[in-house]
Amino acid sequence: MTSPPPYSRFLAPRYWPTWLGIGLLCLAALTPLRMRLWCGARLGDLTRHFARERRYITEVNIARCFPELNAAEQAALVRRSFQENGIGLVETACGWIRPAARFKPLSTLKSGALIEAALAEGRGVLFLGAHYTTLDFAANLLSQYFPFAVTYRAHKNPLFDAFMLRGRLRNCNGVFDRSDIRGALRHLRQGKILWYAPDQDYGPEQSVYAPFFGNNAATITVGTRFAAFNRSPTFVVRHHRGTGPAPYELEAIPFPDYPSGDEEADAARLNLALEAAIRVDPAQYLWMHKRFKTQPGGKPQSPYIFIKTPNRKLDAQRCQALLEGSTPQAPHPERATLASGLELRRFSGFAAGLLQRRHPALRLDRRSKRLRAQGIATVTVDSLFRVPHLRQTFVTCFVPQGKVLDEVTVTPDTAAALLLRLHEIGASFPALCADDLRLTPAGLAIDDPLRLRLRPGQASYQERCHDLRQLAAVLGYDAEHDRQLQQHYLQRLRGDIRQDLQAQLAATGHPTDNGAA
After folding, report:
1. Burial code of 238-263, b = ≥16 C-beta within 10 A, e = fewer?
2. How far is CA 481 from CA 112, 409, 428, in A?
3. Rg, Å, the chain Cα set
4. Long-range CB contact pairs, 72-78, < 8 A, 24+
5. Phi/psi of residue 238, each to 5°?
6. 130, 173 contact by CB (below 8 A)
7. Is the bond into 430 cis (omega within 30 degrees of 0)?
8. pLDDT tens-digit map of 406-440
9. DSSP 8-state secondary structure symbol assigned to residue 301
10. Are 57 and 289 within 8 A, CB to CB?
């Protein structure tokens, strides 16, 4: 079981901002209920305004999980989600510094008799919950009915982690680090209750893929180990804040036949049960974490395209370890294939600082994200590494799996589809080479976004004509295939643009077919 360090370790000036934040939370926690709700909602509004990446993650999650909502409804749900999260922070501090018994009259517990019957079996009881904004405060309230232990992941801020541990230990009879599986299992063996939340993405190692709100999600399987260890009765726990004299509603829903022996089926059934509980009030779920970041195809399939790319410094020893087993690529001496399968690209100078925004490594990262967001296949930047002893920046990236153009035949329809998507976002090729493209099962992919010219708006008529000629030449098209390329391209355009471009093509001597209009 984890124990918190003394506060005397956190007196250095670097912890003073954290102390200030904790102090403000505690002050808000000492106010009456209505004031706590108001303070929390305003804190949520501030967080939504300043925490841009968290706002982006929330927007992506809600768009994926609630496609039936229109844009305005999704935006309203995002705003409410941040407000609920702010309220949850104030509630959490309230539960950590004030006696939980004081707030028991504010709660109602359903299924209490079922929990008592499960405990009477003597095999321990497993609570499977989710990360609602009411998580810690509701846990403190539930502890007034039944004592239990929880698992947790250490916070990156050591002072806040100490504050969190002390608060949870006030109301729980055990707090286990997520890696302390044995400690949690011993707790169950003693016939006690363990609360575990399996709804976060910890990577593929201990997960299986199962639907969550209709989306593929890496789902932790540790819960099946907990339940199977002592054949513990299992409940899905939900808790929501409503209105009225007892606004906090706690409910333990029996989850029988868990585990079944089929981890994927168990994960799908658990996700469905959690989804039903979350839909009671979706805004009270923590949509800010990257629930869908782990996908079978790795980072290229992650929906969080615009999150910040890691940019770290690499010393000589770690640089050597990164390059160990790598294979140089011909005819690109600045590239290599790493042992991990990622591709490494080298650039001179350091990609860091306000004055380095136009560094090619950073431009590659930005352009890659912009293209991928528009459905254009290209490299996916995994990480950036600043290498001081070489005065270089390394970029590791996933490269679309496909064949080079001299190995395959590209249909005019496929070629036209790529050009049109590029031209619609203002991209064009100053000079196109065969190794700039590769054919994937999803269509043509861009090998190096830095080879593109990007401008605001859409590509000009001159750029469109230029790219059509270039692409036809690179693909080795004869006159007939060249004409088909033009036809497929023109058919996708609006009428006025189609007519103007067709006239431009005719004026430049490009083969045309008036019937294409």
Report:
1. bbbbeeeeeebbbbbbebeebbeeee
2. 73, 11, 21
3. 28
4. 77/282, 77/283, 78/48, 78/287
5. -125, 155
6. no
7. no
8. 888 999 999 999 999 999 999 999 999 988 999 99
9. G
10. yes
Among all chains, which residue has been given the structure tokens 């104030």?
Answer: 90
Closest CA to 304 of 291, 318, 286: 291
Give the pLDDT confidence of 183-241 residue by residue, as tens digits. Answer: 999 999 999 999 999 998 988 888 999 999 999 999 999 999 999 999 999 999 999 99
Given this model, what pLDDT does residue 153 score? 84
Tens digit of each residue's pLDDT (9 = 90 or more) over 359-395? 999 999 999 999 999 999 999 999 999 999 999 999 9
Cis peptide before 259 (omega within 30 of 0): yes
**Which DSSP letter does residue 459 get?**
P
Q: Under a CB-based contact definition with an 8 Å cutoff, are residues 140 and 103 in contact? A: yes
Pair of tokens at residue 237: 């726990």
CB contact at 8 A, 235 and 255: yes
Say if residues 62 and 81 touch (Cβ distance below 8 Å): yes
Distance CA 64, CA 461 (A): 36
Please name the residue that has the structure tokens 């690499």. 314
Structure tokens at 251: 């409910």
Angle between helices 495-507 and 461-474 (to 10 degrees): 70
- Residue 516 banded pLDDT, cuts 50, 70, 90: very low
Residues in the chain: 517
Which amino acid would we find at residue 100? A
Report all structural domains of the chain as residue ranges with CATH numbers, in order of start.
Answer: 7-284 (no CATH), 309-398 (3.30.200), 403-516 (1.10.510)
**DSSP for residue 6:** P
HSE-up (13 A, CA, CB side) for residue 11: 4
- Determine which helix (DSSP H) or strand (DSSP E) holds 243, and give its type and residue range: none
Helices and strands, number each (H, E), in the chain: 16, 20
Cβ contact 139:88 at 8 Å: no
Contacts from 322-326 at CB under 8 Å and sequence distance 24+?
Answer: 322/385, 322/394
> How far is 498 from 517, CA to CA, in rounded Å?
7
Taking only the tens place, the pLDDT of each residue in 191-203 is: 999 999 999 898 8
Any residues with CB less than 8 A from the CB of 233 and at least 6 apart, and which? 118, 121, 123, 125, 126, 254
The SS3 call for residue 176 is: strand
Mean pLDDT, the chain, as a whole number? 92
CB distance 75 to 56 below 8 Å: no
Q: Is the pLDDT of residue 514 over 50?
A: no
How many whole angstroms separate alpha carbon 57 and alpha carbon 291? 9
Return d(Cα 132, Cα 84) in angstroms, integer. 9
The neighbouring-strand residues paired with 219 are 208
